[in-house]
């Protein structure tokens, strides 16, 4: 999602979620860091780049994603929270703004357009 100008706030994993992840993944910092990087990624980093940043191999990341059920659940949960965040942000940015035309009645609007008021 690369845009010229961002009208929305980027998703950041809150500290409470980080503490929850540490508790659920039994203090495995590499897994927690990987989940946070993938959730806050916004499409710029590949899986291999994330693995290099964390200090694990690409295959280790693959194994976590496919065989570690707690990791899978927590990653999906963060993706859902990220999706919910961006849905809220896009809804907020695309909300219809009130204008004078929408407030006035049709008759008043026509009279104003014709210059009779």
From TrEMBL:
It comes from the Bacteria. InterPro entries: Homeodomain_phBC6A51-type. Residues 30-85 form the Homeodomain phBC6A51-type domain. Pfam families: HTH_Tnp_1_2. This is Homeodomain phBC6A51-type domain-containing protein.
């Amino acid at each position: 999602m690369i845009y010229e100008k961002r009208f929305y706030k980027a998703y950041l994993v809150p500290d409470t979620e980080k503490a929850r992840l540490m508790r659920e993944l039994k203090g495995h910092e590499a897994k927690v860091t990987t989940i946070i990087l993938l959730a806050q990624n916004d499409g710029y980093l590949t899986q291999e780049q994330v693995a290099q940043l964390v200090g694990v191999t690409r295959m280790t990341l693959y194994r976590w994603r496919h065989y570690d059920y707690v990791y899978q659940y927590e990653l999906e949960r963060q993706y859902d929270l990220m999706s919910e965040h961006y849905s809220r942000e896009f809804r907020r940015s695309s909300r219809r703004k009130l204008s004078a035309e929408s407030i006035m009645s049709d008759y008043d609007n026509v009279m104003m357009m014709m210059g009779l008021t």
